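Table S2 (text version). Query chain:
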Amino acid sequence: MGARKTVSRADLLPYPDALRRLLSVTSSPRMGLERMERLLALCGAPHRQLRALHVAGTNGKGSTLAFCSALLDEAGLRWGRTTSPHLTCARERIVVDGALVDEPTFCRVEADVASAALQMLDDPPTFFERMTALAFCVFAEAHLDVVLVEVGLGGRLDASNVLRPVACGIGRIAKDHTRWLGDTVEAIAGEKAGILKADTPAFVVDQSDVVLDVIRTRAADVGTAVEVVSPVDVDVKLGLPGAHQRSNAALALALVSAAGISLDDARQRRALAHAAWPGRLESLGDGRITLDGAHNEDAAAALASSFVPPSTPWTLIMGATDGHDAGAFAQRLVDGGLAPGHVVVTQASAPRSTSADVIVKDVRRAFPDATTAGLDDVRTLLTSSTPVLVTGSLYLVGEVRSWLTDMPVDPVLPLF
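Corresponding C-alpha cell output:
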C-alpha cells in the first residue's frame, strides 16, 4: 500500500494509551483540506486507493450508510465504513465487514499516523483528521470493494473531502453547527454541496426547494448532475424505524447502484430489512427503553413523528451538547405531539456536554415541570418499570447504552 512509514515497535502503544495520544491533540474543527492532504501524503496516500461512497447532510448520514452496509453485505462484497462521533468506543468509527477494527490493528496504524503527524509540528492535524487518516489507512490495507465515508462537519472543507468518490450523497439539511457552517440553511447547504465533484454521480433526498436549488447550482458549477431521490415505498420493510428512514434508504439504494452493484428487488428488500444503526430509535430493556441520538431541531421533529409513545405514563430523559439549543429541541418534541408524564434533564460525562442546570432553564419553556438529575439517579430510573425515551445528545445516548449493552467502552472519553 504505498510508502507509509513503519514505526519501530517502541512507538507502538497499548490501546488506552494510543487513544489518549489521539485525544491529546486539538479536537476543535480546523476547516481546510491542505493539512489533511499533507498528512495523507506522509501516510502513503491511502485515500487514492479507495472506491468510496461519500455522504454529507445534517441528519441521516449514519442511517444512510447503515443501509448501504446492509446492501453491500447482501451483495457479498467487502466493505469499510467510517462515521462520527462514536457512542462508546472510538473503534466504532472504523468498521470493516461489519466488525470494529481490532485493537492491535488500531494501535499499529495509529502509531504510523502519529509518526506522520510528528512531521507536521508547524501545522498539527486535529483529532478528526488523524482518525480519518487512520480509517483510510486501515481500509487501504484491507483491499476492500467499497468504502462508506460520512462527512464529519459540513463538506466543502471537511477532512474527508480529499476523496475522489465513486458517488456522492446528501441527506436532509437543516440548521446545525452554525458557528462553522453559517447561520442560514442556504449557507449550510452550500457547505454540504461542497462534496460534489465533476462527472461524479450525485444524489440528494427530496427536501425544501431552497436547499435543492443550492445543491443544483453547485452541481452545475462543478460539472455534474444531481438526482433527487424519492422515499422508498411504504410496503418496504426497514430495519430502522421512522418515516424519515425511507428517504435514507432510497439514498442508499441510489449510491450502491451508482457504484455498479446490482441487486434484484427481493435482495434489496432483504437487505433494507436487516439494516441496523445503534442509538437511533433503538429499543432496549425488553422494549421499555428507547434511545435516539437526535440533537437538533430537524431531528427532533423526525423523532416526534416516529416515536410511538407508550400507552402508560412515560419519562423523557434529555441531555444536550454545547452549541445546541435544548429549548428549541424540546419545543419541536411538543409541537410533534409528544407529551411525557415526566421530563428529566441530565448531563452526560463527555466534556462537551452541557450542564443540566443550564439546559433545564431552556427546556422548561416547552416542559414547565422538567427537573434535573445526576447520572446515578438516571441509572436508577432506568431500572424502574416506567417506559423511557433518552434523547437530545449522542453522548448521553452512548453513555446510557453502555449501561445496557455489552458494546466495548473506551477508558477515556471523546472530545469531538
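Notes on Table S2: The chain is about 40% helix and 10% strand. The first helix runs from residue 15 to 23.
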